[in-house]
Amino acid sequence: MLTLDSTTVWVNEIIDQIIAKMDWLSEKSRNKIPYTTIDGEHDDRSVCNPTHTEADGINWWTNGFWGGMLWQMYHATGNPKYKDVAEISEQKLDACFHNYYGLHHDVGFMWLPTSVANFKLTQNPVSRKRAMHAANLLAGRYNLAGEFIRAWNDLEGEDTRGWAIIDCMLNIPLLYWASEETGDPRFRQIAVKHADMTMNAFVRADGSVNHIVELDPFVGGVVKSYGGQGYEEGSSWTRGQSWALYGFMMSYNHTQKEEYLNTAKRVAHYFIANIPENGVTPVDFRQPKEPALEDSTAAAIAACGLIEIAKVVGLHEKDMYLRAAIKLLQALHVDWTTGCDCILKNGSASYHATTHHQSIIYGDYFFIEAMFKLKGSDLYFW
Ligand code: GLY
User: Fold this and answer.
1) Residue 301: inside a domain, yes or no?
2) pLDDT tops 80 at residue 144
3) Is 236 part of a structural domain of the chain?
4) Which residue's CA is minimally distant from atom 2 of ligand 1?
5) What is the pLDDT of residue 260?
6) What's the CA-to-centroid distance between 248 and ligand 1, angstroms?
7) What residues act catalytically?
8) For the CA of 239, the nearest atom of ligand 1
9) Nearest Cα residue to atom 1 of ligand 1
10) Which residue segment(s) compose the domain that 305 sits in?
11) Is 349 in the pocket of ligand 1 (CB under 6 A)?
């Protein structure tokens, strides 16, 4: 157990609920790749749907998380049915390599919790090949002049050649993995350059972070920042804070560079200082009081990062990070019934989205990862 003595019973109860729900849900959604729920039912990003664009059907950036949930369950229970269902979604993602155009830097989010997870747990050589393919796509997005990985492809009416986003800190572990796996340092060199740029261009003096930074794609250097999925430019989108917090820990775990740990801690201290009294995480720490928009996914991701920090700091610091993680996790609204194919309620994709407070698959994924971490699991796809 990596938790506070007073919360051991709670951790065990939640793990039992996760196992019961996933036992049922893995069979019900066996052939889907879900993103959210509609009237309690998982949607499916793997089927042709005229409302999906090139980027949000099978190429949708969240399509690795369902597989990741199943690999977490396989590791925790040893039940082969989770491996079987995980492999269904991993195989479906092969279509993305053929489509190519809808893919961008989020290949890390897509193939770390699927193919890298599969390879780490089963040494499946086909999974290794898929993950190497994705790593090469990610490395190919590196801009030498600006020393950054380009985020998205061009958006409607926007030239995004110079855009980097904080979320990429969770994509670059695919590059660390590729170097560790092949012995070829190129991938890691790119990851380190991107992490260094992010540390300098995204993290503000108070420990908060920008979501989007535009760099000059021809000569480098910061051009401007954007509010992105947060409230406004200069605000503090909570999921972006979480990507930074956990992402810098990932870079620290792969490189042991002290400045990454210190950056993760700075962001963590800012995050902890801004957690409201009731523990409920807003969509943006600088949003207006009303409407009181929440984002459960930001809380689950931050909790994972806080637990990772707790693992590497001394005893006198450890409890502070664990306490904050547990406060965030205990404030979440969870659904253990068969009335909804989700676990977490109240996820919000962005502040200005038309829909808020919905279930989102990465919220469920990081909640499961956080709870297994507290239980003592050392499984690490990142
Ligand atoms: N990576 C996009 C998001 O966090 O919504």
Assistant:
1) yes
2) yes
3) yes
4) 167
5) 98
6) 16
7) 106, 167
8) 4
9) 167
10) 5-375
11) yes
Q: What's the CA-to-centroid distance between 167 and ligand 1, angstroms?
A: 6
What global pTM score does this model have? 0.97
Rounded distance from Cα 362 to ligand 1 centre (Å): 9
pLDDT band at residue 2 under the 50/70/90 scheme = confident
The model's confidence at residue 6, banded by pLDDT at 50, 70 and 90, is confident
Ligand 1 atom closest to the CA of 349, numbered from 1: 5
> Is 382 a domain residue?
no
How many domains does one find in the chain? 1
Q: What is the CATH number of the domain that holds 62?
A: 1.50.10.10
| Dist CA 207 CA 312 (whole Å) | 20
pLDDT digits (tens, 9 = 90+) for 151-171: 999 888 889 999 999 999 999
Percent of the chain with pLDDT over 70: 99
Asked, for residue 221, whether it belongs to a domain, the answer is yes
